[in-house]
């Protein structure tokens, strides 16, 4: 078991590869065939392989339900690279510095669109004085501003004791996993979802299960089936301009989700990092609809870029206290400096004007994209862009394999295939916000060539 898992993690065994027959494995390892069968059954239960009648044993093409080994191997614990990227993602990273590549893969706004703020200069002594305003939950002036924004935008009263400042949304997610779950627990997320490939779940021994989406959002009937069969302990959802599909969950579906979570007493974690980038009125947040049932995550990284890693968790005071204690135990302290920058930006009198200008620019880029995309409509089903940063394109023809997507790498078109977010291989996420007129034309020219090549396969 350990050797096969090691080969998978190292990339020696690829998704979809066949393992040798049971008899051959028994001969190779010099053990009884029943021992091999037992080991393979364990690997199936841990999600590493699948066994198909008539097809033998294959390496699982997805991560759904995958878990760590049933015991801790301390030698491998300190040597394995838990953050190992998908081989395709590694190829994308290698191409990012290439000036001839067009990048619609990165999950950030282009630098030219990030709002420009003038920050007051601080002496070292002044920063030390600001440090005194830093409590266990974060920089208190920033907490207060977040409370004001939540009240104004989501119509709910939140006190500073209900806001924990984190170093970005991923740290917030990690803290929640550590405090609310135990190794072996199961979590439901959307299928597809940006959470699919994050290493924090495997590191914590948490099993992920995907719930199918339709045009209204996560399917509640499919979620209930998972709750009953997989003993789901937590639901994590990105309901507004979902990453990667751009789907926004309808208000009716949000109410159904809340009712289901109350029925089974399962908390919901709501990731709302895109809701401010909207071109139209969006439904009420889950936190607004069920203040005590929902844990709300926010972040400034989508507006200010990843250089300002400031996020927050909003939840009931007792949970925030437990999360704060865990944060201190793990020494996840945050410097006051980025918090002061975030506070200054949010309090800037021009912030609202900058944000409106940004949204207007994104709306124009979305309209331009949808107009230009008519030239590929025969090959790709294109999602409607109502806000957020992404558009999702689904291939209309024959089934694609992972290897087929290498054609994008050859053409130096950097996109995110759906297998980075799911077991699916038929779609891709594009960050349309990175398209100015010049690289948009280049993108569609190359995509037409790529589509012609894919149809020939």
TrEMBL record:
Keyword check for DNA-binding: yes
Keywords carried by this UniProt record: Aminotransferase, DNA-binding, Pyridoxal phosphate, Transcription, Transcription regulation, Transferase
GO-annotated molecular function: DNA binding; DNA-binding transcription factor activity; pyridoxal phosphate binding; transaminase activity
PROSITE patterns reported for this sequence: HTH_GNTR
Keyword Transcription regulation included in the entry's annotation: yes
Domain HTH gntR-type positions: 1-62
SMART domains listed in its UniProt record: HTH_GNTR (SM00345)
Similarity field: In the C-terminal section; belongs to the class-I pyridoxal-phosphate-dependent aminotransferase family.
Protein name (Swiss-Prot/TrEMBL): HTH gntR-type domain-containing protein
